[in-house]
Amino acid sequence: MTAPLLTVDHLSFGFRDRPLYEDLSFTLPRGSMTSLIGANGVGKTTLVRLLMGELQPNAGTITFTADMKLGYVPQFRNIDSEFPLTIASFVQLNQLGHGFPWHTKREKVALHQALAQTHLLERRNLAMGRASGGEKQKAYLAQALLTQPNFLILDEATASLDVNTKEELMGLVKELNETLGLTVLFVTHDLGLAKAYTDQYLLLTPGHYEMRATDQMDIATMPDELKSGEEEEAAH
Ligand SMILES: Nc1ncnc2c1ncn2[C@@H]1O[C@H](COP(=O)(O)OP(=O)(O)OP(=O)(O)O)[C@@H](O)[C@H]1O
């Protein structure tokens, strides 16, 4: 058994008038891909916020290995078609050293690597506003990869994409998982993607949770609101 990158032990959390989890325990083995699934409002985003240290548990612990380095990939939102920055500039937007646009050699190498890893090198000079939904989402992924994380949280990152583009993005994430050994937590409503691309799933339902290998996932017995496989915020 691979040593866990993350251990959540007897976690309880709730907002003042709304308990969300009671005694939640699970691990993310190093190099594993895990789906976090559950209906709207069950507490997926809140769990991510707890993992990121934005919220503190009411009880229990969240422990990462000392070398954990997190990259966070949000769902891309509307980007105006006139948005002028190129994909390359967008990718390095948050991690610029001083003196933009005169990057250090190290920053240039890191950018090249992140663009190559997301298959965006040939598209790097395209304006973000003109990029496809898949390219925009890959640019967000490249932004997260720029700091060379070993743990990636994909927060509904496939939700704005059409079916083929979802598959393409998940194929790419799987490739990064296999080649770089990245540990991945994939927040989604899409059971099909969870089953096809991740090793284990954490299903949150009100007052309960289930952590299993995805080859044991029986979509027919999953909560009805998840079965449609539809995600919020359809294609832009
Ligand atoms: N800061 C807050 N204060 C009080 N209640 C909150 C706060 N943030 C979220 N909640 C409530 O906690 C519950 C869980 O919210 P959360 O956003 O974690 O759900 P979710 O599973 O991510 O939903 P979705 O799939 O719609 O994104 C919801 O009822 C939400 O209204």
From TrEMBL:
Coiled coil (residue ranges): none
Gene3D superfamilies: P-loop containing nucleotide triphosphate hydrolases (3.40.50.300)
GO MF terms, alphabetically ordered: ATP binding
Keyword list, A-Z: ATP-binding, Nucleotide-binding, Transport
Superkingdom of this protein's organism: Bacteria
Family statement: Belongs to the ABC transporter superfamily.
PANTHER family registered for this protein in UniProt: METAL TRANSPORT SYSTEM ATP-BINDING PROTEIN TM_0124-RELATED (PTHR42734:SF17)
The protein's name: Metal ABC transporter ATP-binding protein
Taxonomic lineage of the native organism: Bacteria, Bacillati, Bacillota, Bacilli, Lactobacillales
